[in-house]
Every structure is written in structure tokens, then in C-alpha cells.
Design a protein that fits this description.
peptidyl-prolyl cis-trans isomerase activity, 6-stranded antiparallel beta sheet, rotamase, Chitinase A, domain 3, Peptidyl-prolyl cis-trans isomerase
Length: 120
């Protein structure tokens, strides 16, 4: 996967639980809970479709430990295999908390499409 994904927007109300959807199943090493992952990703708001972050726009992937990330990533990436592309739809409780939580994305349901490039 060498190109930024296009996100297809779901119809209807935002889910109240984490939704994990594999768009491409990888065939490499499997990410484990607490692993350090190297990913490319794009994130948009569920309600508006507005993109709020993208490693693609910066032109480089990013590497970080899962335990430092929002709960939706901690729960949604393990089990994914290198070479895979996965879409996570994450309710506020597993993202940046309820509205008024002090983060610009508090109270929002988020959609991420994540390409797993490496895990260790």
C-alpha cells in the first residue's frame, strides 16, 4: 500500500462501540498488545468527514508504543498483521473522551484507516 486511503463514510448514527474492519489483511508479523508499531494513517471525524490528522500528509510513517495511544488504537490494532490496512471507527469513550474534555476532538466519533508497516 503506497497511497493514502480514501475513507468511505458509513450511513446512519455513529456506533457506540469500537468497530474494526480489515480492508486488507496483511501476511506479516502480528501486532501484539503493548507492541511498538510503525504505521501510516489518516483520521477523520465521523460526523463531518473532516480530516484532522494524516501521516501521509507529512510524508513519513510514525512509530509509537500502543500503550501510549488512545484506547481505540490499543484495542483495535492488536491482531493486525504487517502489510494490512484496517479501519477503526472509535466512539468518544475510546478516543478523546466526552465533549468538554479539553481536547479539540473530545466528544467526537473518529474514523482511522491504518496501514501497519512494522511491529516489534
Amino acid at each position: 500500500m503506497t497511497s493514502k486511503p480514501q475513507i468511505e463514510f458509513p450511513d446512519g448514527p455513529a456506533p457506540t462501540e469500537l468497530v474494526i474492519k480489515d480492508l486488507v489483511v496483511g501476511d506479516g508479523d502480528e501486532a501484539k498488545a503493548g507492541a511498538v508499531v510503525d504505521v501510516h494513517y489518516v483520521g477523520v471525524e465521523y460526523d463531518t468527514g473532516a480530516e484532522f490528522d494524516s501521516s501521509w500528509n507529512r510524508g513519513e510513517s510514525i512509530s509509537f508504543p500502543l500503550r501510549g495511544l488512545i484506547q481505540g488504537w490499543q484495542d483495535g490494532i492488536p491482531g493486525m498483521k504487517v502489510g494490512g490496512r484496517r479501519q477503526l471507527t472509535i466512539p468518544p469513550e475510546q478516543a478523546y473522551g466526552p465533549a468538554g474534555g479539553g481536547h479539540q476532538l473530545s466528544g467526537k466519533t473518529l474514523i482511522f484507516v491504518i496501514d501497519l508497516l512494522a511491529t516489534r
